[in-house]
Amino acid sequence: MKGLGLRQANAWLHTWSGLLLGWLLYAIFATGTVSFFRDELSFWMKPELHASRPDEGTAARVLGAMADYAPGASSWQISLPDERNPSVAVQWYAQGERPSKGGGSRLVLDAATAQPLQARDTRGGDFLYRFHFELYGMPRIAARWIVGVATMFMLVAIVSGVITHKKIFTDFFTFRRRKGQRSWMDAHNALAVLALPFHLMITYSGLLLLMFMLMPWGVQSAYQGDLRAYFAERGGRGAAQVAAPQAQGRAAPAPQAPVGPMLAQARAAWPAGAGGISVMQPGTTQAVVELREGGSTSLLDRGRAQRMRFDGVTGVRLPMPAEPAPDGVSMVYNVFSSLHLLRFAGPWLRWLFFASGLLGTAMVATGLVLWVVKRLPQRRKQGGHAGHRLVECLNAATVAGLPVAMGAYFWANRLLPVGMAGRADWEITSFFAAWAACLAHALLRSHRQAWREQLAAVAVLFAGLPLFSFLAYPHSHLAAGSWLLAGVDATLLALGALAAAGAWTLRTPVAARPARQREHAAANEVAA
Amino acid sequence: MTPAGLALGFAGMAALSLGMDRHYEQVFGGEPGRCRLAALRLFGALLLALALEPAVKAYGASVGAATWAAELTLGAVAVALLLSYAPRTLLPLAPASAALAAWWWMA
Questions:
Q1: Contact criterion met (CB < 8 Å) for B63 and A197
Q2: A483 Cβ contact partners less than 8 Å away, ≥ 6 residues apart
Q3: Which residue of B lies nearest to A356 if distances are taken between CA atoms?
Q4: How many domains does chain A have?
Q5: Domain that holds residue A261
Q6: Does the residue B89 lie in any domain?
Q7: Looking at the DSSP assignment, which residues form a beta bridge with residue A75?
Q8: Do A277 and A248 lie in a common domain?
Q9: ipTM of this model?
């Protein structure tokens, strides 16, 4: 880039790295933002669980029922209901089975009755969460590489964008409406600058989460390729849990101590109380009950929820081996990864991050639109241009098309027969079929029509979902006292309204339209 | 999220924006004096710093700092939108929001 000043060189870098990876980054940002509410969404997508209402006696009731569901198991794992998921998930391992993430037997229980609930087959929020960093239908590692490289370019785009920005402080609060390209520029700048701490943090922490794959050499050479040893030494992610006491000799059946007083001790020690219960050798003389802290109050000790242990028969608190405090490097890693994964957050901070994520998604979207708008005058003079037209199509099919695909995914979740074979896969098929249809639609229609019709589709799909839930599931709305479900529905309504507003502004005839949309219309004429 | 932190973030960002020529004229309609601009900016920065207190008190240092940053962002977005769509409403809203924050603080 000889001959260009620092600013122009960075502008060039920003424009082209942004365009090349913008569509992928938009998808990563959008699905990542939704993933802040992954648990809530998964719950929303399983109406069979909606009637579950936790109460004071839930833990004791579930432990009692476990003796029927899993007698003679070597251990029980119980995830207690919380504000993000009011149902109870249980898992148990048979004697001699090695505990593993995918192993054991599982059930989902109603918190009020401890009866098993049969939820529909769906990937729920997990599909969008996985898509956020592993895409879909391709080898995991390859996909993570693609996302990792895109994330690096995002960091490049953020830094070069800041350098390119001529008046970062003078224009800090500036958004000039109805000024065509100027407005898009202002919107892009404001969305980027006002949420810059979030953008930097989320991009950088995203890279850190992938760093052991992207830059493995340091750790590999220092630990001779033994990543496990590295993590164990760090005492953080993937480190061996404190070993469970081993059964000694034959354990005889024995009555168990009530769990209530144990939970009371947990409530006294931890702000959020206990989030999970493990019982080793349940129902025997050697039973040990372990409580895990629900949520976490600091960013520094990710993955190290506090634990308490009790003798299962006497209910006496047992000593826990002391865990070493995290060192400086681990703390930095923990802070960033906790911020990204938001494991610690209560509902309000989750909303704040969701809003910031929406700002980031909109920043990428406005950047993509800006590329088209900026080149319009030139294109108008020179006539049609295949590359320009392609960017227009991809813009509409990504920015408006991805929400259409999400809407199709949610509707498939509602409408596909519950007993259908391969149901979860069909939901995902609906997602990609709708997205592909959006791309075809954008290629067939003019630029403005594509935007308007796809935004209208988003509005209809999103706004229809709460209505459907209201009519189809009596437990699934605010009247039934579920703020969780009402929150999901209200968000869908709000996003639907936003899309409707977008479709509405693109409706007016050319003459009466403000400059910005006239340019859109002109683009169509050029393209047609 | 803390109501006091959000209100302080909004009021602080509003004061900061009014400490700039362009937005001062938009809202007050007159030529600003240099001293007044500087005072507004100082006041805005002070409010933003104060917004850290309720967040840290509610969530502890690390989670509180993250909450604070997100609250300031929302405050700034609200100010930017108001300046574009209804600049003069900042005049009653900003002091009201600061007063509300003071009230929550006392409570």
A1: no
A2: none
A3: B70
A4: 2
A5: 53-116+241-318
A6: yes
A7: A93, A280
A8: yes
A9: 0.94
- Whether the model clears a pTM of 0.95, i.e. scores above it, the answer is no
Q: How many residues does chain A have?
A: 528
> Which residue carries 């129902």 as its tokens?
A283
**Phi, psi angle pair for A226, to nearest 5°:** -95, 85
Q: Do B63 and A172 touch (CB under 8 A)?
A: no
Tokens encoding B60? 């502890």
Distance from CA of A362 to the nearest CA of B (A): 13
Residue B54 is assigned to a structural domain of this protein: yes
Q: Cα A259 vs. chain centroid, distance in angstroms? A: 34
Judgement on whether residues A484 and A429 belong to the same structural domain of the protein = yes
- Amino acid identity of B54? P
Is residue A416 located within the same domain as residue A505? yes
Nearest CA among A115, A153, A138 for reference residue A24: A153
> Given an 8 Å threshold on Cβ–Cβ distance, is B73 in contact with A198?
yes
A175 and A298 both lie in a single domain: no
| Residues of chain A neighbouring B84 (CB-CB closer than 8 A) | 175-177
SS (H, E, C) A223-262: CCCCHHHHHHHHCCCCCCCCCCCCCCCCCCECCCCCCHHH
| One domain, residues A402 and A439 | yes
Contact with chain B for residue A344, Cβ under 8 A:
yes
The closest CB to that of B1, out of A172, A299, A349, belongs to: A349
Q: Minimal Cα–Cα distance from B98 to chain A, Å?
A: 19
B25 within a domain of the structure (yes/no):
yes
Q: Say whether both A383 and A517 belong to one domain.
A: yes
Rounded to 10 degrees, the C-alpha dihedral A317/A319/A325/A326 comes to -70
Q: How far apart are CA A185 and CA A376, in angstroms?
A: 14
Residues of B in contact with A302 (CB under 8 A): none
Contact between A177 and B84 using a beta-carbon 8 Å cutoff: yes
Tell whether the torsion through CA atoms of A509, A434, A376 and A22 is positive or negative.
Answer: positive
Same domain, A32 and A164: yes
Query: Is A326 within a domain?
Result: no
Contact A438, A400 (CB under 8 A): yes
Do A382 and A461 lie in one domain? The reply is yes
Answer whether residue B65 is part of any domain. yes
Question: Which range marks the domain in which residue B32 is found?
Answer: 4-101
**Number of domains comprising chain B:** 1
Query: Shortest Cα distance from A184 to chain B (angstroms)?
Result: 14
Q: What is the CA radius of gyration of chain B?
A: 14
**Measured between beta carbons, which residues in chain A are less than 8 angstroms from residue B70?**
198, 349, 352-353, 355-356
Per-residue confidence in pLDDT tens, chain A, 528 aa: 456 788 899 999 999 989 999 999 999 999 999 999 999 999 999 999 988 888 989 999 999 999 999 988 889 999 999 888 899 999 999 888 877 777 789 999 999 999 999 999 999 999 999 999 999 999 999 999 999 999 999 999 999 999 998 888 889 999 998 888 999 999 999 999 999 999 999 999 999 998 878 877 777 777 777 767 777 666 544 333 444 555 555 678 888 899 999 999 999 988 888 989 999 999 898 899 999 888 766 666 555 678 899 999 999 999 887 766 777 777 788 888 888 888 767 788 899 999 999 999 999 999 999 999 999 888 888 877 889 999 999 999 999 999 999 999 999 999 999 989 999 999 999 999 999 999 999 999 999 999 999 999 999 999 999 999 888 887 666 656 678 888 999 999 999 999 999 999 998 655 444 544 444 444 444 333
- C-alpha triplet A443, A449, A451: angle, nearest 5°: 85
